[in-house]
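Q&A log
Question type: sequence-to-structure
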Amino acid sequence: MNKKRIGIVGGMGSYAGLDLLRKVYDVTPATSDSEHFPVTLISAPQQTTDRTQFLIGQSSLNPSVGMLEIIGQLAAQGANIIGIPCNTAHAKEILNEVQKALPENIILVHLIESVVNHITNEYPAIKKVGVIGTTGTISANIYRDALLEKGLEAVHPSADMQENYVMSAIYAEDFGIKAHSNPVTEQAIEYLLLAADELIEKGAQIIILGCTEIPLAITETSYKGYPCIDATKILAQQLVKTASAS
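Response status: OK
Response body:
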């Protein structure tokens, strides 16, 4: 039986693409090799400019350009259901340009919508949602807007926590996840958990790990009794669900 091919736009960061690939296989209800969906991952980190730098004005080249090139390469290899394992890449300023140029036969699974729908379906009593992500994700209100549409309130880290702890945990060359993905350093984990503590203090009832680097560091499904939502795993589940229904 022919199966739909899942395509992964990798390189944002590179281990995040690998993490999504692994989780696609983890969540597929297969009992043999042949029951898995074919998956193509293209990781071309030099092809796509940094999403946060673009959103905060440090880069003028829209990352959508490189993303579309990779999607074209995936499509050429037969992939027709596409996942982008980068929360920041789903900012409207970036993703709208991608969606406008998508080939008609390509289904792009929206990471942010998938995560928010998961929360409303699985945690209907939740009202305040903590978000840990890049400054690009926070400043572009990617999750805030999506949550607000569902009547939910987004809780973000303070400016100091965001810049000096969350962004350092992701980007710092000496201990950040982009530089040290396998294994993630204890300092990066510690910094991210400090952000989680602050969100809980602000009233968050659930925490979105809203950068695809973060689930590499925080691997537990909960922290201090508060659910942690792995955005990468949710994307994997939705890719498999979409491929199964197509």
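Response note: The radius of gyration is 17 Å.
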